[in-house]
Specification:
Layout (H helix, E strand, L loop, with lengths): L1 E5 L9 H15 L3 E5 L6 E4 L2 E7 L3 H11 L3 E4 L4 H13 L3 E4 L4 H6 L6 H12 L5 E3 L2 H9 L5 E3 L23 E5 L9 H4 L6 E5 L5 H7 L4 E4 L3 H10 L2 E4 L8 H8 L4 E3 L5 H4 L6 E3 L3 H8 L4 H8 L4 H27 L1
Parallel strand pairs: 1-2, 1-5, 5-6, 6-7, 7-8, 9-10, 9-12, 10-11, 12-13, 13-14
Antiparallel strand pairs: 3-4
Length: 344
């Protein structure tokens, strides 16, 4: 099978979408699927307003159409609703090619934090974007229910995984900080709700790993917090292993891969009871969910690290790829049936 994957999120960006797609591409290639990735690197780009670290592609359906015609994919997956995704959607529709989409980010909530745009307007645009897809893959059951209530259709729950060779119960870093250690790994941006964690009165030390547009502001505002900057690979795994509790303050993430990375390193999670944590942690005993995040952090200190690790075993990139392949095969079948109907 030949798959063209169109995405506005790709390396060198570091986020959950890129992590998902790169692991998916690796799994699919191992199964004999020929994957072509079309990303911003293939176009001229401009800085994203309010977030210049992200580059927006100057993509067109004509250019995407040329990529499609040259590669001749059996099907297309449109991973994002940005310029590359919009151009790929238009080119696929023009050619009558079957495609799937995925919903990774709650852009309406993110946009509302930066501009006076009603959620209902943004969700209407997203609903229209995903409507022609054979399947729209969503990260959790909570998100599926929410989108279904907003009129989205053909929704398929698509899990996430963790690289166990990288994230495991490894040696902690000698941070030299008073314990207990409360850790958050996140993009440093307004939508991540980091202040809900950093404003808490907690014993020990707070550590934040990550970069983003609000980093300088956060460093100035919270001089007692240890900001470690962007970390990857073994260094990131050792930061996880150094923590007593992983704190996930976001109210808008659709999944939160960092939570299962922390669990794989044996670190219990404290979070709000919202989509993402409700699906990843739930009643598993691997963390504490509460509207009172401070109490969740303190209660999570008592949880055994083994319980956290065991919960991480419920997530794998193999299962993620299985769901994707099933959705893709159904899209191919639907495309074949449609062509036969038109021919008849």
């Amino acid at each position: 099978m030949r798959l063209l994957l169109a995405t506005d999120a790709w390396e060198p960006q570091v986020n959950g979408v890129v992590r998902t797609l790169s692991n998916l591409a690796r799994e699919l290639s191992a199964r004999g699927v020929e994957v072509k990735i079309v990303a911003p690197r293939d176009f001229r780009t401009v800085p994203c307003p309010t977030y210049p670290e992200i580059r927006l592609a100057l993509a067109t359906s004509f250019r995407l159409g040329r990529e499609i015609d040259a590669f001749r994919p059996d099907t297309i997956h449109i991973a994002t609703e940005g310029p590359v995704g919009i151009a790929a959607r238009r080119a696929a529709l023009q050619r009558g090619l079957p495609f799937t989409t995925s919903f990774h980010t709650r852009f309406p909530e993110y946009i509302a934090k930066r501009a006076p745009v009603p959620d209902s307007f943004s969700y209407a645009l997203l609903r229209r974007f995903h409507a022609p897809a054979a399947s729209c893959l969503v990260p959790t059951e909570s998100i599926r229910r929410d989108l279904e209530g907003r009129g989205f259709r053909n929704l398929v729950v698509w899990t996430r995984g963790v690289d166990r060779a990288e994230f495991c119960q490894t040696e902690p870093l000698p941070l030299g900080l008073p314990g207990p250690i409360f850790l958050c790994v996140s993009r440093i941006a307004p939508e991540k709700n980091l202040s809900a964690f950093l404003d808490l009165d907690l014993p020990g030390s707070k550590v934040v790993v990550g970069a983003g547009p609000s980093l300088a502001q956060m460093i100035a505002r919270y001089p007692k917090v240890h900001f470690a900057g962007l970390q990857t690979g073994e260094a990131l795994a050792r930061y996880y292993a150094s923590a007593d509790v992983f704190v996930f303050p976001s109210l808008t993430d659709t999944f939160g891969i960092v939570m299962i990375e922390a669990l794989a390193c044996g670190v219990p999670v404290a979070a709000f009871p919202v989509p993402g944590p409700l699906d990843v942690i739930g009643n598993s005993g691997a963390g504490v969910l509460s509207p009172d995040l401070r109490q969740a952090c303190l209660d999570a200190l008592a949880l055994p690290r083994e319980a956290a690790y065991r919960r991480s075993l419920d997530f794998s990139w193999e299962a993620c790829a299985d769901i994707f392949v099933d959705a893709t095969e159904r899209a191919l079948q639907a495309g074949t049936a449609n062509r036969l109907r038109l021919a008849g």
